[in-house]
Amino acid sequence: MTNHFVDYRNADVILIIGSNTAENHPMGMKWAMKAKEKGAQLIAVDPRVSKSASMCHVHARLRPGTDIAFINGMMNYIIENDLWFKDYVLNYTNASFLIHPDYQCEDGVFSGFTDIDGKLSYDTATWQYQMDGDVIKKDPTLQDPNCVFQILKKHVSRYDIKTVCQITGTSEDTYRKVCEMYASSGKRDKAGCVIYGMGITMHSVGTQNARALCILQLLLGNMGIPGGGVNAQRGEQNVQGSTDMAMLHGNLPGYLGMVYANKHKTLAEYIEKETPTGYWSNKPKFLISQLKAWYGDKATPENDFCYDWLPKHDGKNRSYMSLFNYMDTGEVKGFFVAGQNPSVGGPSTIQANQAMENLEWLVVYDIFEIETAAFWKRPGADPSKIKTEVFLLPAAMSFEKEGSVTNAGRWMQWRYKAVNPPGEAKSDLWMFYNLFNTIRKEYQKGGKFPDPVLNMVWDYDLPGEEEPDIAKVAKEINGYEVATGNVLSGFAKLAADGSTACGNWVLSGYWFEDKDAKVPACKRRINKDPSGMGVFPQYAFSWPANRRIAYNRCSADPAGNPWNPQKPYARWDALAGKWVIPDVPDFKATEPAPNPSDPPIPVPPEKSAVDAYIMSEDGHGRLFAVKGLSDGPLPEHYEPYESPFRNLISQQQNNPMALTFKTGLFSKIAEIGSEKYPCVAITVHLVEHYQSGATTRNCPSLAEISAHMFVNISPSLAQKIGVKNGDDVIVESVRGQITCKAAVNGVCVPLMVNGKETEVISMPYSWGFMGIATGASANDLTPSVGDPNSNIPEYKAFLCNVRKANKS
Amino acid sequence: MRKMNRRDFLKNISLGTAGLTLVATPALAGESQGKITGEKLPGKIRKVKETYSICCFCGCGCGLLLYSNEEDRLVFCEGYPDHPVNAGTICPKGNGIIEGNTVINKKRNRESNRRRVTKPLYRAPGSSKWEEKSWDWVMAEIAQRVKKTRDESFVEKDEHGVTVNRTTAMAHVGAAALDNEEIYLLHKMYRALGMLNIEHCARL
Ligand code: SF4
């Protein structure tokens, strides 16, 4: 989220797309409803009448997997009708930048496409800016055919209302209403807020879906302002924190890219290749402080701070789906699972469980006996044939230990221990700490390359206590001065010479004491909102640097006057000669005085106006992405991998760069227009169940309220296959079949797509064979195809058939 | 582990809700619900301990107040009134959170949720059952397997002679249900071992 939940109430128009906020983030929806009470218009774009859709002024249905067509069409409408926010676009985005004259997008494929022995990639040379020495060439009149604005205009011009609605199945009247209503936020005194969720990301074009929303927001000047932003509602209590902490193969904590064998042989090479201009020019400070935190005294400038002790990546895809493929092929032999339930929660679970049978050992840390731990006794499996050794370690629940979690609005919040864990259950902190202590003991006897194992900083004993010293861990994450051990106030204090240690620079400051509350920032609970804009600057800690709204320089014009004087955020007070802002500036508002003991000097607005998007190398919001994406600089509609239709917009059927498995367990995909599997399916959530249901299906009242697995089908489909609400049906895909109850209630209705009636069905995926409430797992049906950038599976558009189950 | 039947469910629900009402508004409780819980209630309330927490479910990060009794069991939960996001309200999941710790039994008392795993468990190759083990035993056994798998697969230099110090024979998934400090230790441990295969549900 660039903004935060409470900030929704500052919006004039809210576009909820690919999210069922009311069901999945109920307390987020509360703030959208506050906006509604104050007169805001709410739009839901969703294939179903979700709970959220039923609370909005306009609901547009679309066929799952056609979001880019939908959003590109909105941009086309906005540009054609001259409804974009010119001052904003011209000053704060790369609209006027000139792109390489050879750039093109022809028939759905961008320039630079290469196919070397079946290995597809894009050479991005033609996606780059035209340079005049070090300076990017620009055309402030936006007329040059090679300028970003003209390229975007041409690109989206193919998405006229008629074509869009043929693809998406939306009624043209409704679509026009959505365009009109949302475009109204392009005025300088109006704020439009985009709320999205997994309905956007879980596609083979997931990243480009999100990009499309960002471009839309930039065109309308909705980024960096209160009541605006692109707000990804994260599904889990700490999925933001676990992402920040880099539990993803390609990262080190704090979004530092992993070190790769082919391009980062030495620290110097890493720094040379990975240190861009803009804010990331500080990257060496972040990495070296991290190495210092990890290897302590052993890390010295002479030995490159033990850089060679980091494992170097082999460049292969090691994302979630690939790991299961590596279990299938036998490369992965040992598997740890902590607070996740892949036997139910990942894609293609029939095949994933099969792949897990190849493991030599499996360690599961959990509070309940979840399906993953019990995979060897799942229905249909023969335990005597499964050789995997399984360890199930009893974990503590959130309130049986203490620690911090980070919500979707980037707020790091501390929570306390209320009761002891039952029996011998332990906190994960205790388990990880002691497991590694035990491993280190093994390596004291010798072993392969024991240096990083034995020398990793790992001294969190708390005298007299069984639990490790969590405050010490927190301090290390936050960062401290090596010589004094003093906690750092933030990442601005980090150095590249080994004098500071910091485990995760983006979180720096979260453990620094608040001057009023006298506790670390993440523990403070000062319920004060001095600006009245819902900022609450002293409640918890919002990374980075306690910033609540990202890119907040953009809430004012280049001269520092708020676009909307009624809702000022950043404002240059010309009389006083300084910035006034209720938040932490996301720009250079002051600079250190020549004499360090003097107060910092205010920086006038002209200076920050030229790089208002400070994290972007060119300082501007990117309508056109010159780097960072493997599948194109602009979002282009492709059909989902499993689709009833040929692509109407180009000959290119699918995202050519999507992650797929050509052979093996995970290669099964239905053919285009399959007659056997005619329904478009999506998976969804229910308010009572959390993810795979591992916890909530073991909580009696939640299991009772929502006890049965079901599939939502339309009344017309129900009639066709002869079932009523509550009857048992079989849902099948090319990967397997499940039996569950039919819910026939009008949540799903068929859409008319390019003249063909298309059934849409939806299934919650929160059931499995363990727990109090058991039921079939929807993921037995989902495909192992993923977005090329994020590698997220395509759960939100796949093909199924539904038929009546014979009563046994 | 014990399965609940539907009658148990319903009992728990109705009792649970009554309990909520009583603790939240003790003055009214006597009039409307007195028969259900009896007169001891004020004493019960006096003895509960209040703890601030953050909900363990969705990304809203709602503030909670959890109440535990003298037997170290959670008895009640409500939204934290001064939390900017939820301002005292919570959804059904947040409300159900304490059932991970305790449930209401037939005698209408709170008892531990017996579905919790309370001892380290081990399942041997080809076995059809769990065996209870001590912490020392599981830690030592896992450590030996980690070492064996790592050492057998460890690559110090790749085919181009670059120092890589890695293993790809072990993998990890999961983290979004853990605290930041826990994840940090986990990440450090895995990188120290040379692991590349580290993933979690942000990808899902
Ligand atoms: S109480 Fe409900 S809305 Fe709040 S964090 Fe928990 S699950 Fe989310």
Automatic annotation (TrEMBL), chain A:
Keywords: 4Fe-4S, Iron, Iron-sulfur, Metal-binding, Oxidoreductase, Periplasm. PANTHER family: FORMATE DEHYDROGENASE-O MAJOR SUBUNIT, TUNGSTEN-CONTAINING FORMYLMETHANOFURAN DEHYDROGENASE 2 SUBUNIT B. The keyword RNA-binding does not apply. Its cofactor is [4Fe-4S] cluster. It comes from the Bacteria. This is Formate dehydrogenase major subunit. Belongs to the prokaryotic molybdopterin-containing oxidoreductase family. The keyword Cell wall biogenesis/degradation does not apply. One of its GO terms (cellular component) is cell envelope. Residues 2-436 form the Molybdopterin oxidoreductase domain. Pfam families: Molybdopterin, Molydop_binding. Residues 682-798 form the Molybdopterin dinucleotide-binding domain. It is found in: Cell envelope. InterPro entries: Asp_de-COase-like_dom_sf, Formate-DH-alph_fdnG, MoPterin_dinucl-bd_dom, Mopterin_OxRdtase. GO terms for molecular function: 4 iron, 4 sulfur cluster binding; electron transfer activity; formate dehydrogenase (cytochrome-c-553) activity; formate dehydrogenase (NAD+) activity; molybdenum ion binding; molybdopterin cofactor binding. Its main location: other. GO terms for biological process: anaerobic respiration.
UniProtKB/TrEMBL annotation, chain B:
Transmembrane segments: none annotated. Residues 48-105 form the 4Fe-4S Mo/W bis-MGD-type domain. Residues 1-29 form the signal peptide. PROSITE patterns: 4FE4S_MOW_BIS_MGD, TAT. Its main location: other. SMART domains: Molybdop_Fe4S4. Keywords: 4Fe-4S, Iron, Iron-sulfur, Metal-binding, Oxidoreductase, Signal. One of its GO terms (biological process) is anaerobic respiration. GO terms for molecular function: 4 iron, 4 sulfur cluster binding; electron transfer activity; molybdenum ion binding; oxidoreductase activity. One of its GO terms (cellular component) is cell envelope. Coiled coil: none annotated. Its cofactor is [4Fe-4S] cluster. It is found in: Cell envelope. The keyword Metal-binding applies. Belongs to the prokaryotic molybdopterin-containing oxidoreductase family. This is Formate dehydrogenase major subunit.
